[in-house]
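Thread: "does anyone have the structure for this chain?"

Original post by V.I.:
We have the sequence but no experimental structure in hand. Need at least a predicted one for the grant figures.
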Amino acid sequence: MRIIDFEKFIREIPYNYQAFEVKRKVWKNLSQSSIIDRIFDKKEQITLSRFDLFHATWDLEEFIIKVLMWGYPTKGRGKNIDNLLLLENFDLLINKLKPYEGKVNITLLEVQTLLEIKGLGFSTLSKILYFKRLKIESYPALILDMKVINALNSGRFEDSGIEKFKDLNYDNAVFEYVKYLYFMNSLADQMKAEADQVEMFLYEYGLNLKEPVGEDGDWNEL
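Reply from O.Q.:
Generated one for you, tokens below.
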């Protein structure tokens, strides 16, 4: 089974529509409460899509929190979100991202430096880079989280080059990121699709597919 076998389906994936519901009660009593209140605007629940985030970059502080809400509607496990929203860490992130306002490129070394901020993991950072439309070594940033990582190294797919990710994990993801971007863009080009669509396919279906067997497959009745 190959990712490219699903090219017709992948070309139809409406990635800009991917949205998550965020409840106000989950985001109460956190640092940056004034920005959070502004985002909810007296509503108890909002829905954020990829399209919304691509068009939310005019206010950097609000943008960052919306990315966190979209990526972790229930705030995720552990204290990473709480830590990142603390005044010292949040201000540091904002100050480090401001120089890239209006820019296109960021180096891998600069990406690694951002990961020194407490509470900021690579999955979250890849989302920020993606929605800011930044490029690393000429490749547009893509989201790389654990679901995508697990899909790539699950052994389910046999696309050429995917074997390079057999040892990919969360700890080494930043060092393999450019390789990942190259692979995803190459696949997308072959399918005449968007790399965003390939990423969403892996996120939604990469761990939930099994090649059918039966009368037209390799299954033999016992």
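V.I.: this helps a lot. The chain has one domain: 3-205.
O.Q.: and The first helix runs from residue 7 to 11.
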